[in-house]
Amino acid sequence: MNLVSVDKISKKMGDKQLFTDISFGIEEGQKTALIGVNGCGKSTLLKILAKKEQPDTGTVSWNRQCVINYLPQMPDFDPEDTILDAVFKSGSAVTELIKRYEKLCHHPENSEQYRDELDKVMTEINRLDAWHFEYEIKSILGELGINDTDMKLGTLSGGMLKKVALAQALIDDGNLLVMDEPTNHLDIETVEWLQTYLKKTTKSILMVTHDRYFLDEICSNIIEIDRGTAFTYNGGYSLYLEKKDEAEAQLQREDQRQRNILRNEMKWLRRGAKARSTKQKARIERIHAMQDREVYREADKLELEIQAQRMGKHILEIKGVSKSYDGRPVIKPFTYTFKPKERLGIVGRNGAGKSTFLRLVTGEEPSDTGEVIPGLNTVFGVFDQHSKELDPDKRMIDTVRDIKEVLILPNGKSISAGQVLEKFLFPSVMHHTPIRKLSGGEKRRLHLVLVLMNNPNFLILDEPTNDIDIKTLSVLEDFLDDFPGCILVVSHDRCFMNRVADNLLIFDGEGGVEVFYGDFDDYLEEKKLAVSEEKKQAPKKETEQPKTKKKKLSYNEQKEYDSLESDIEKLEEEKTELEKKLNAGDDDYSSLTDMHKRIEEIDELILEKMERWEYLSSLILE
Predict the structure, then answer these.
(1) How do residues 238-252 score in pLDDT, each as one tens digit?
(2) Quick one: 323 and 183 in the same domain?
(3) Is the domain of 62 the same as that of 115?
(4) What is the mean pLDDT of residues 519-547?
(5) Residue 24 in 3-state DSSP?
(6) 430 and 452 belong to one structural domain
(7) Which of 163, 385, 465, 518 is buried deepest, with most CB atoms within 10 A?
């Protein structure tokens, strides 16, 4: 079934034409990635499909059965809302019912009015058969680390806000997930869980992501916006790269063939040929058409070049550095000495202290104990995850000139601020654009310009892949391969970490920092082996444990648990009676059909209630 049809839509943003006359469709169950360079209109296209914006021309048709869950790149929240309010914002009948149930569970009262309302809500959940939905919601919130749903959004970190927005998109009862950079600001464990969840879901997916491993694991269809046109490729990212190369080569061959034909035709025309016949006239018209054709031109390539300052023997020494907030240790005393050309990746869940550590290293934040001793020639270049040094009201060219009017390249040549921007794929028509009008990816690319213009020899990269398109990411990786200095990087992007980091610092979330010698794939493999060993040892631990103790359920959970067994018994009794009637064969055909349908419904209800009973039973055991 076709969920969405896009027919010849175009969109312009200010003076910039994003795309023209693009068409494609999204089928039920299809999982599609939307790719393209920063500023080509990917996020705008997602907004159009999510009914948040309108195209300038063309039409988008949605199937009546299409229900969209949209995850924007930058979620917009009311800081006074609670997590519970935000997660259940869709307002559908089932989500409103579960929201009410969760509120009653979080704020129990010992009153008759409270018990009556809880009974009504639970009766309605039973009527709508929504317990499995409530269980799935709890499972999603738990996996995302969202436990206290009473917290206000204004108190949350950027990573937690992203998780709340992600929970809202996954929980809503739709059949098309439209997601803009779903992995941004997530830790590696959450990215892995999300990857598994999206692989299993039967919902259709249209997403923008820079994470190539994530993309390749989930999507089997790719739409690329390239030079204002949309191209569709069947297959994952790896297959797309092959097909893209083949398509580019074919375009080059076709362009060369057209050039050869035109060259020969022009020779004929220069000999003074005149349109004496209809054939000759048509031939001259074809020549003019070939001259006016759109000539194949390779896409501009990003050029990253800096004259990194030379490093001394002493690069950076960290001596017993630690940090605590409100008595909670974020980083316990840690010591490390950096060697020349060292490349370290930092791994840990959100809130484990990764960004704090980077601020301690650069001196942006003081440590509680110990000291950080940089070398005399060490020059930091900090690429933070929020690009916070960009003034939204300043023009691009002025922002670059504030750093340097002229940049000296490794070959000794000097280039102006405008030429620097052109090397980073910002054409001259954009140079006087205020930064607030740039896309998220364009802001990140501009921030990278500013970082590299200071000629650093020690790069600190905090989630550098966020909002950067795949092509720019590949160029950045090539640049970092040849970078002569040190690199310290925090990233959830598996491909990027494998390419850039030789060894890792593992943050355990309780203040501990451990050095791991190996790349990210090595770390994941070792982690899986450790989990496997724990499972093997689990039965031994269970035999050593004392007898399990009963854990007191909440009022509503106990009430539900007590009623489940009798509900299952009643359903089984009803099923037995219906089977007796079927075996007797006395009723008419219509009644027999109805009884068959009811028996199937009863089987499903018994299965769901049994699963719920097993879940509540598991809570009783500590």
Answers:
(1) 788 888 777 777 777
(2) no
(3) no
(4) 69
(5) strand
(6) yes
(7) 465
